[in-house]
Amino acid sequence: MIETALQSFDPRIKILSGVILGLLVWQAGFAGLVIYLFLLGALSWQLRATLPGQRHVLKSYGWFLLLWTGAKLGMDIWSGASLPVASLAASLLAARLSCLLAVGLVLALSTSSRQLGMALTWFLRPVLRSHAWKGALALALMVHFLPITWLTLAQMRETTSRRCSHLGLFRRMLIMGQAVMRNLGQKTWNQTLGVACRRLDRPEAWQPKFRTGIGQWGCFVMLMGAGVALALL
Predict the structure, then answer these.
(1) For residues 135 and 197, what is the distance between their CA atoms, to the nearest angstrom?
(2) Would you give the distance in Å from CA 122 to the centre of its chain?
(3) What is the spatial distance between Cα 37 and Cα 27, in angstroms, rounded to a whole number?
(4) What is the mean pLDDT of residues 139-165?
């Protein structure tokens, strides 16, 4: 039920909510961040069925958090901060990055690439006017292609580890790079053909058409009010 409700929401509202929540995350304290993370994690769990290569994506998120948290901790200690103070600052950064990743994950899982493109066209039209659809098409292709890239990398890594285990690390990395580039090249060609066949490479395919009830905007106002309240905790 939650999944259906999120997917039926106006993509413009979801993008605005994501941007505002992203700004609020950087102002929130630990208490607000914990509640943010709990709620966003629950939403992500409800939408997990639409996430391709779940384990590999979450693993990439974990490495990202570990890298930046470790960098923050090391830089603070190098600057002369004590270990407890540096650990607290690094934990705060990890919590904020986790919330931002969760916001992006919920937005990506609850909104199709075409819906995101249509919303971006609406936002860009006052600035780019007749060329706004190009930015929408670029965003839609990127959002569609990123999960494919993650899944391809994971598949090639597993294949080379099983079939080329007798080779050295440098040789395996070389073979993996060649295989990834070949697979992504083929998928890019297939995606280009799909865009052309569906006539998405023309402005009339990206004319925004939204039917948003007052109830959705009311939910947006209440959600942002709750977000501001959590940021002040």
Answers:
(1) 19
(2) 20
(3) 14
(4) 75
